[in-house]
Amino acid sequence: MGEIANRDNKKMLILFAEVVAALATILIAVLAMKIPVVPVCVIVLIEVAIAACLQEVPVWVHAVVAAVQLVAGVLCGRAVFCLLCILIYVFAILTLREARA
Known about the structure:
Blueprint: H1 2-32, H2 37-53, H3 59-76, H4 79-100
Helix pairs in contact: 1-2, 1-4, 2-4, 3-4
């Protein structure tokens, strides 16, 4: 019974860390980069949704998604924000894989 409780606690901690990372990304983008809050929140939600949809694909697909995001960020002049979003994407993939295990 203790092993199940420990596994559930680990999953909750990982989920909590994902939420904290998303909130940190939102705060950095809004306060430091002066990006409006609504687009930032929508983009963070889209990142997590894309991660949920693509959690079963091979690793190279994730690399392509990250590369496309980085190129889009450089073209828009928001490379730092896109790097933060890539981190949210990668962390969401890892969180979803750990929660599934």
